[in-house]
Amino acid sequence: MIANLIGGFISILVGTSLIGPVANEVAGAAATGTNLSTNTAWGASVLKLVPGFFALAILGVGIAVTYTSLRQAGIV
Asked: What is the DSSP letter of 74?
C-alpha cells in the first residue's frame, strides 16, 4: 500500500512539473509556420487541447492511486 502511495506521489509530482513545458511546446508547435498537418486552424485548435488532457491524465493517476490504496486497505 505504501509503495503505491509513494509511486503515485512521484508520478503526480513529475506530471505537474511537466505541465508548463508541455504547454510551452504545444504553443510553439501551434504557432510555427512550418508545413505540419496541425497548422491548419482546426489542427491548431485541437493541438492546444493537449495540456488540458495532460492535466486530466495526472488527475486520473491521483484518483487511481487513491482508489487502489483504499481498496487494498479494505475501505472500498
From this structure: T
